[in-house]
Amino acid sequence: MDVSTCLKSLLLAIRQYRNNRSALNASQLQKHIEDISGLKCAGVLFSGQVLPSECLSGLMEVAGDINTSHALTGTIISLLAQFASDGETKEALHSSYNFTGTLAAIIHCNRSTPEEPLVLQCLNVLQRLTYNVRTLHCASHIHELISFLMQHVQSSNDDIVKACLGLVANLCRHDVTVQAHIKSQSNVKAFYRALINFLGHNCLTVVVFALSILSSLTLNEEVGQKLFNAKNIHQTFQLIFNITVNGDGTLTRNYAVDLLVDLLKNPKIADYLTKYKHLSVCLSEVLGLLHSKDPDTASKVMELLVSLCSVPVLRKLVCETVLRPPAPRLQPGTRKGVQARGSEPSLALVHWVTSPLDGPEQCYMQALSLLAELFEEAIGSSLCSSAQSFVELLLQEVLVLLQSPDSTEGDQLLKKHCLRAGRVVDFLLVLCGDDALRMLVSQRVSPEVCVSQVELLLSYSQDLTGSTCSTSSYQLSQLCAEVVLKTLELMSHLRQTMPDMETSFYRILQDQRMVTPLSLAMTSNRREHVQIALRILFEAAPLPDFPSVILGDSIAANNAYRQRDGELSIRRSSASEDASFISKSFPTMHTEPSGSASHSIDSLIEKLQNGVEEKVKDVHMSEIIDVYEQKLSALASKESRLQDLLEAKALALSQADRLIAQYRCQRAQAEAEARKLASLLKDTERRKEDLQAELNDQLLEVERLKSDSQQLLQHNGRLQAVADQHQELKGTYNQLLSRYDKSEGTLKDLQAAHISLTQQAEGLRKTNEGLRLQQERTLAELAEKEQQIKGLKADVLEKDSNITGLQNELRRQEEQIKEMEENISILRKELNKTEQARKDTSIKASSLELQKSQLEAKLEKIEEELGKHTQMIAMIHSLSSGKLKGDVTANLSL
């Protein structure tokens, strides 16, 4: 059966079960649900059509009923849980059908039996459903759900504990209302103590859940400051990176990455991470996960890297790690040195950027965002020049992403294409910030690519604007307009180096279809859209054929549309009051089937024309006249608007006449240009022949390239084998790493013992050296003493011989002394005589000294007189010459 038939059967079974809740109807309904679960019908179920919506609403009602059996409720939840992984269907279940409130109600009804498999199933589905989705605090049974989770986090069942912790982590994250509600509970301190105890749990998933909840609730409080202080934060970093690299599942890795992303929003913790000593090693291991074949793992890793780029110091480190040129090395089995590019994270990014459009959206979106962040950092640094080869490779792959998708795939694929094309253009705009990279972009990007992209999006936007006015179509139209304006901004950057790009740029600006993107951007509530529109408008306004009048009308229409939406919201509230007033004034009309306002007024007019007199309670003629007057005033206003439209049509006809005259003139010019084109066509045909020859050469080159590609594919197979071997070695490396950690602890103990023993040995060595030197000095002194003893013995012998000689000499000297004494007696007599002669001589000397003093006094008088005479002579001779004076003075002195 097709999906439509299955849905009709399902809806019929739901109605039968609601009318009669028998076991037969329940089994029939369960069978139809199992049939639906075997079909891939997510797109049909959540398409917004009437039949699927009624089926989903009926299933929600049956599942939320307290009288429904657990088996049937579990089957319904299993069916809906299949769609909780996709983003849009999860959002529809969450917002449109209140699946969260239904599951919370089921848990609340079975709160007395938490060990039931249905409760665990609801908790697991709720955890998947609320991941990265904000839950409305006013939803049904949310308060009861939070109380249930806080109560059962200390359950003896590990599965319930894990599900409760994961669900609390989802509800607390980025939701201040839920955080305030948890903090207001009476058992919050016991809840905190339980979470802190979970930090030592043997399951890493439980540890990450507990850390995530504590960071959401207590990061800016005293408890959080103690938990995430400078001493403990490095252990937290190591735990998060270990789980990210060697995690026991995608779920644990996702929550670990989310925890680090949330912690990085705190400036103090971001500063702690910049000082983490193992950050470079951990970052290299995280980048190695980009080579994983799991798109969820790769997208989460890229989300972490984008978050790291929000910190300037970390962004520089990530940029150097990703864009660093690889070192050449020899691969096994080859003789020539080649670069082992299989392990480069940049090539892994290229792989995820070029993933299929219908694949996981987060992969290529996060990869493009990461590349934009990296090249924003690389521009202006030394990495910019070394990354040019990578940019060339990247441009070859990225420009393919701008090709238009198949129009038969629907709006969903077009929306994905617009999102990816917008990120691609943002990345190209980042590259245009550097002159060298802008030249590379201008060499790769052709005007045809930009023009085809703009033409495609303008045509889609025109179709969406003219076909329906639904919310999804309006959002898609805005998305197309955003990509168009970004593409035009890229063309504006490249038009200075590409003349063809400038011609295409100005031609597109004069297209009347540009009115819609510009008007939507000018009236947008996003600042960057308005700024882009103003830059484009600044370029387009001076052009002669730019539709400025139509643009003004479109902007005014958008503003009027927004104003009318605001007025309609006010009118809806007043309409409810008017409806209550009319129901009181016209109770007989209230019992009739509801119809349009015009139908009720026409029926009243018909009754009055036929003269039907009815006695209606509380109906007054004045009120009926007021209704007629309002209707007539509305018709008069419509007539005036129609008159304005006729005048506008007349003006348009006159403009059409002028356009026809211009067209005839342009047709003549076109015929002349056609003749010129005919001559150009001949030249083109000649050039075509030349190009045909070149094409043949190119075909030969293509054949050669095919053979080269086959060789590359074989080489790629060998690289894949090497990659598999690398994975095996990685497992071995992890085991060795754990052994290394243990060995490192043992090594530290041995090193401490070695250091102490080394110090003792050094002390003993110094003592031994001192004793050895002392022994050498003692031996040297002993040798010297022996030499001295020998010398003293020789001296003693000599002195003995000298003593005998001296004794003989002493005898001779005694004899001489006797002779001397005799001589001394003689000399004493002579000395007495000499003393008497000295006394006489001293008397004579004293008399001579007296005579000398008298002569000296006389001499001084003579010298004074001589000085006076000398001065007189000098005065006499001073009149003649100085020379004579000098001579006379010299003579006188002589």
From TrEMBL:
Organism: Danio rerio (Zebrafish)
Pfam families linked to this entry: CIP2A_N
Gene3D superfamilies: Leucine-rich Repeat Variant (1.25.10.10)
Top-level taxon in the UniProt lineage: Eukaryota
Protein name: Protein CIP2A isoform X2
Gene name in the database record: cip2a
